[in-house]
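Hallway conversation turned thread

IA: we were arguing at lunch whether anyone had actually written out GDSL-like lipase/acylhydrolase family protein end to end. Turns out nobody had. So, for the record, here is the sequence (507 residues) and right after it the structure tokens. Reply here if something looks off.
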Amino acid sequence: MKKFYALFPLLGLLLIACSDDDDAQTTTPDPDPIVFTSGTADFSNYVSIGNSLTAGFSDNALFIAGQEASFPNMLASNFALAGGGDFNIPFMADNLGGATINGLTDLDMDGSPDIGNRLFLAFTADGPAPTPVPGQGTTEITEKLSGTFNNMGLPGAKSYELLAEGYGSVAGLLMGTANPYFVRFSSSESASVLGDAAAQGATFFSLWAGSNDILLYATNGGSGVDRTGNPNPLEYDRNDITDPGLLANALGAIVQTMTANGAGGVIANLPDVTDIPFFTTVPFNPAPLDEATAAALNGAYAAYNGGLQLAFAGNAIDADELAARTITFTAGESNPVVILDEDLTNLTGINPALVNLRQTTSDDLLILTSRTFIGTLANPNDPTSVNGLAVPLEDRWVLTPEEQEAIATALAAYNQTIEAIADQFGLAFVDANALLAELNANGLPQADGSVVTSTFATGGGFSLDGVHPSPRGYAILANAFVEAINETYGSNLPGVNPLDFTGLYID
């Protein structure tokens, strides 16, 4: 028996040891940290090429906070997790966004994009309204920045302008052949954007360009010419639609140059402009009228309507055009406005008073800035000269169905080219068109249960200019780029959280 007693201390030690083992087995170890890899890509030297969407333009301006919230800067933060290097940005001087050229602020130069202060949401007697931030921006365009810059996004740039030598020259500003943003950081007076980008020896690049080749026509209400079939940009005006062949040659040359030394990359197609708040915010029938005003307007257009009846009787127009051109107002909240439509039959040879007038329909798209113009007086001394009612809106305020069709045709050709380039060079491809269409149609749910939409000012997806994304919108786009890169190159980049970025700058 004494031998068994002698074993008790040993048994106790074994029990303690087993107890410790049980505790060890129930303790959950910390998960191994995720190791992010670049797959077959090399992110060590990333260069982005494009226009305002690449630069981080927001609220109608380029400013430091917006540049920091650009989608390429978000990509660079992901690339840094997998071997990415520094990402240098040609920062503006402040968060106002405005600029001067040789100290002058009155910059009325052909071809120069707007470089006024950014917008903020001011609360006026008429309700919330986008308003330029007061003060004067301290960025002087002619003060050259030193060094090289990874973000080569240039507000206002068209596809073929990215190849143009002298696009960053001070002298070119006076002739409308240079871009003021590129003037600040171009390597020389004769430099091109592509030349400066290629000189950096990028190992990876992004290209999102071509939107201005169609957007400037759209945002100016179709006040331009569709240049399809004319590949000579020297014959273009600023708001013209670029020939698809010219765009294809420009984007093809950029990709061929950037991939010549084996660089990988990602390219995105172009969104449908009819999906952005600039064209979806103002209804076609925005005019409230009382009975007296409606009756007065109907009386004013009675002679015009009578002239249309005579033109129809003489077979100058058919019944459909007669109905489309007859102008009638009713008392109530939702009256269409009167516009000039160049696609109507010209009847002025029959009667000089029968100009090309009609009222808007649900097929028309009034541009965002028309909402502060409709209802103003064409003549301050004439209270009856109400723009959009007694005085028709000019073409620049509305996209008609015919103008929308020209845009859609060009867009389809552009996007077919972009996808073909991605396939030809083995690039990651981002369907930005489908993404922004979904944002407009249904919104995009977020992790906290909120939904980012394209609703102007409150949706969180777009900035106050109605064209460019908000920081949160840029984050959503950045994630689409990351997803495409991961799929193509086998990387495992995490993306960004859109909720970490504001949906609207509050001041």
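OS: looked through it. The CA atoms of residues 190 and 384 lie 54 Å apart.
IA: good, adding that to the notes. The two ends are 88 Å apart (CA to CA).
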